[in-house]
Amino acid sequence: MPALVFDENSILDAIDAVVKKTFQMDFNWDWPGGVAFYGVAEAYEVTGKEEYLNLLKNWMDERLEDGLPKLSVNGVSMGHALLSLYAGTNDQRYLDTAIQLAEYLRNDAERFGDGILQHTVNSTTYVFHEQAWVDTMMMAGLFLLRIGKLTDNKEYFDDGLKQFHGHEELLQDPVTDLYYHGWDNIAKDHMSSIYWGRGNGWAALTMARALELIEVTHPSFMVIDGSLRDQLSALARLQDEESGLWHTVLTDSTSYLEVSGSCGIAAALLSRGSLYNKYTQKSITSMLGHITEDGKVLNVSAGTAVMDDADGYKAVPYKRIHGWGQGLALVYLSQLIKSTNRVYA
């Protein structure tokens, strides 16, 4: 495949703008900040800019003064930033707090079936009894693998594997190889049975990251690798030919093109080396074109429940900027820099 062609300085400038805009946004201890800061940590990893780490450290230190809030599966996504801060500073406080999050998942989070985490949010109004959402692969599944690997805790690591295998079993369609948004274990169905763009981005990105943590001789490596391989093959062929983006309802070309899901998908494609370069190349100009000079990532759909039907997904607004859009854009841009095998400092 031809090598990717892009201006590295333009990518680095975009990363810088998105990071700075992200810290002009206000976040609670919840998944919008969790995903945003996951992206900031990746930006720090590839650029070596201490400024990014310090911004993250200052935010986290201020919040930790108040102690942990009431936790949810989605809120555990903040654990990603804690693990990256521990790696960058060697400050034990961050790891100790991350362990508290892992213990919450192990001992207190709602589960169903064979130990699958029920999707939970920081709300007493919205309760999703015995529902698995693809979002959990990002918010909790990958976190359990990361902290299990870091601390050599087999219990955490195996639980992370359980979440990946369980969500694959419940959500990946064996016909299309795409992931459904959700599963209702009581009704035994996929509710609206929609292949949601950002949801498939969550699945693809986190499987790609999981494979970096699992030994190739572990049977789970082959299970996750096979799931990702087939999903990416399907996703590549659903890319919009003109823009290089993906639709918010992947199989419906009348639904709008959505940037956060596209970033997750494209970052996962990049994890396969040069195999998907022709698809990734199409995405670069369009992705950069959706980032304003002051670092706003545009055309990002708002927080999305499992909607009733395709029209429900099409009606989700995409006017505002969101933490998950900022974070997934940073993941994608950072993966582009990684693809050059260079680290900037």
Cα(first) to Cα(last) distance is 29 Å
Measured on Cα atoms, how large is the radius of gyration? 18 Å
> What helical percentage do the residues reach?
40-55%
pLDDT under 50 segments (min length 5)?
none
Shape: globular
Major sheet size, sense and barrel closure: 2 strands, antiparallel
Order of SSEs: HHHHHEEEHHEHHEEHHHH
Structural class: mainly alpha
Number of strands: 6
The largest sheet has its strands arranged as: 1-2
The average pLDDT value, as a whole number, equals: 96
Q: Beta-sheet strand percentage?
A: under 5%
Number of helix segments? 13
Describe the protein in words.
There is one protein chain. The chain has 345 residues and is mainly alpha-helical. The protein is 54% helix and 4% strand. The strands form three sheets. The protein has a two-stranded antiparallel ribbon. A two-stranded antiparallel sheet has the order 3-4. Strand 1 and strand 2 form a beta hairpin. Helix 1 runs antiparallel to helix 2, helix 2 runs parallel beside helix 13 and helix 4 runs antiparallel to helix 5. The model has no long low-confidence stretch (mean pLDDT 96).
Features:
345 residues; mainly alpha; two-stranded antiparallel ribbon; two-stranded antiparallel sheet; globular
List the helices and strands and how they pair.
Elements: H1 8-22, H2 31-47, H3 50-64, H4 79-89, H5 92-107, E1 111-112, E2 116-117, E3 131-133, H6 136-151, H7 154-171, E4 182-184, H8 197-211, H9 219-236, E5 246-247, E6 257-258, H10 259-270, H11 277-289, H12 310-314, H13 323-338
Antiparallel strand pairs: 1-2, 3-4, 5-6
Helix pairs in contact: 1-2, 1-13, 2-3, 2-4, 2-13, 3-4, 4-5, 5-6, 6-7, 6-8, 7-9, 8-9, 8-10, 10-11, 10-13
